[in-house]
Amino acid sequence: MWRELLPVGRDSGSGGYRRYAWTGADAECRAWFEEQAEARGLVHEVDRNGNQWAWLGDPSQGDAVVTGSHLDSVPDGGAFDGPLGVVSSFAALDELRRRGVQFAKPLGIVNFGDEEGARFGLACVGSRLAGGQLTVEQAHRLTDGDGVTLPRAMEAAGYDPDGIGADPERLARIGAFVELHVEQGRALDLTGDAVGVASAIWPHGRWRFDFRGEANHAGTTRLVDRHDPMLPYAETVLAARREARLAGAVATFGKIAVEPNGVNAIPSLVRGWLDSRAADQEALDRVVGAVESAARDYAAAHGVDLDVVRESFTPVVEFDHALRDELARILGKDTDLTVPVLETGAGHDAGILSTSIPTAMLFVRNPTGVSHSPAEFAAEDDCLAGVHALTDVLEGLAT
Ligand code: GLV
Ligand code: MN
Ligand code: MN
Ligand code: MN
């Protein structure tokens, strides 16, 4: 079944995926999800925020066990980040049926909308809206690079944006949410395990740095007369690296917009987005504060103005301890081995939902540790180990 997803939104040059929210590629992924649900006799529904659900049993009964992930991607993303969790959910359900498991609780599979935030700049839009961490007013202000707002994009894709907003009743029906995900680092490769359990997600956020200078001729403007915003921007990139290293954190300028973006013009504007993450809040604050302060000094030295805006922020997530221990117990029950428990610097819908419902995550080994790139990888045997782990977990939780 997963093979059908392989060509969707794939760039024939790089081999990476471009499945952005509410685009044609997203629609194809959604159609695939609906087909998978219907082929299994599950009840398919799309909630008010555009998240897709497939139900076995009646969710209004409450205490539902839900699993799933997302199908959208970053620019030039890999095949596993997101889809592995959704595909594994359907495969685990098939395995549960083969085992003849009788469920005491409703079982749901979910595809959260716009997890990566590649189009509107904010990650986990579907789960943030459902959980109320993104207000309707904030959602209405989200705009893509072409000036299209989130509601207009939803409408153009055939969805009604009028009802978006917190969905506490839907979340209250869920007793446990488990997201399986490809690991985005090499911890499991180093411990030699195919599957691990998540303990925590680092606090993380996105900050926009606008350096405004003065456009001018690249050939005729003397160096001393320039107000070139590219220079303080470049120095800020180096400062981010330095501060992150000092704090044991990470900091990345991965996206940049330049105006007027001409080879022979000094830029008038350099807009760079900082993504920074750290094991604790104090370290993250320290890094971002130091980068901002250095950027202000550099900007002043070049006669350039600087505005810094925090575009999004997600506090530290500690996954539900009881559920995490339950997962480790279920996965370790037939062996003497302990299941590795790891923290991660990557954001996930499970992290957003953890403030309203008990959530847990399973990670599947990624031997190169590469993610958000076409080189992202997980071996077929490890993917199958992930499906078996998820099956055991769902059996343990839903019976
Ligand atoms: C999403 O995958 C993120 O962690 O940025
Ligand atoms: Mn991702
Ligand atoms: Mn993901
Ligand atoms: Mn993510």
TrEMBL record:
Binds 2 Zn(2+) ions per subunit. Allantoate binds at R206, N264, R277. Keywords: Hydrolase, Metal-binding, Zinc. Its cofactor is Zn(2+). Zn(2+) 1 binds at H70, D81, H181. InterPro entries: Amidase_Cbmase, Bact_exopeptidase_dim_dom, Peptidase_M20. Zn(2+) 2 binds at D81, E116, H372. The keyword Nucleotidyltransferase does not apply. The keyword Metal-binding applies. GO terms for molecular function: hydrolase activity, acting on carbon-nitrogen (but not peptide) bonds, in linear amidines; metal ion binding. Gene3D superfamilies: 3.30.70.360, Zn peptidases. Belongs to the peptidase M20 family. PANTHER family: ALLANTOATE AMIDOHYDROLASE (PTHR32494:SF5), ALLANTOATE DEIMINASE-RELATED (PTHR32494). This is Zn-dependent hydrolase.
